[in-house]
Amino acid sequence: MGGWSTADIPDQSGRTFIVTGATSGLGAATARALAASGAHVIMACRNEIKAQAVAKTIAGQVQIRPLDLADLASVRAFADMVEGADVLINNAGVMAVPKGATIDGFETQIGTNYLGHFALTALLLDRISDRVVNLSSLTHLIGRIDLDDLNWEHRSYSRFGAYAQSKLAMLQFTFELQRRLLAAGSPKLALAAHPGYAATEISSETQNLLEQIVGLGNRLIAQSAEMGALPTLYAATAEVEPGAYYGPRWLDWRGHPTRVGSNDASKDEKTAQLLWELAERLTGTEFPVHAR
Prior knowledge:
Elements: E1 16-20, H1 25-36, E2 40-45, H2 48-55, E3 61-66, H3 72-81, E4 85-90, H4 108-124, E5 128-135, H5 159-183, E6 189-193, H6 209-220, H7 225-228, H8 230-237, E7 245-250, E8 254-259, H9 269-283
Parallel strand pairs: 1-2, 1-4, 2-3, 4-5, 5-6, 6-7
Antiparallel strand pairs: 7-8
């Protein structure tokens, strides 16, 4: 039984997409499909050498610009270089890494996956004409937002707990951004997507025995990065509902994209507002849209 695929992407000629983390996996697959559909793709990447290698494999209009989401100075420098874009795809991320800190002192995963993208979106929103797509994960289901210890300074560190918190934060960010856009009367959209279980390089960063287990799962169960990128591509290019969340249709694990549900914590408006305010303080950024 078929479903939506890259063949269904409308002609994107004349449109510009920013894709963070486009050097491998989902980001590279996303950039490749968008360029093939006629889009101009800005590959926002930390590793320019890897980005150049990927760009050489893409037939279409691509441009590489440096962006390190673990460094707010880099986020601001990148934003200063962008004149405008139709779609911002916040794809980059790290997964289940050992405890560490970003340049600005944030726990690595919340800092890279969430706070860096939060600041980037705040700085660019006035120049994004159509929509913002945020990458979440099935692991948001086990996530918990600790507003008193977002950076794991006091609680015992959990690699997957920190990853799940960052991906739950991305969902809360998406839904809160959409609420604020609607309240402001803006036609812009905020969407979220997740890849299901896709074989990508992100799992190679866990640096322990779990990496071997995940690697076995990648070979036996996971779908390809190209299939994992379809929910993102759908959210970025199709006719969608404001604030919708998309993922694979078969048990949320694999298959063609469809609208999917999320847990109650992701829809907690009070926590989302408090997290938003905390993120603005931590990153020193402020959005041009405000709470009702």
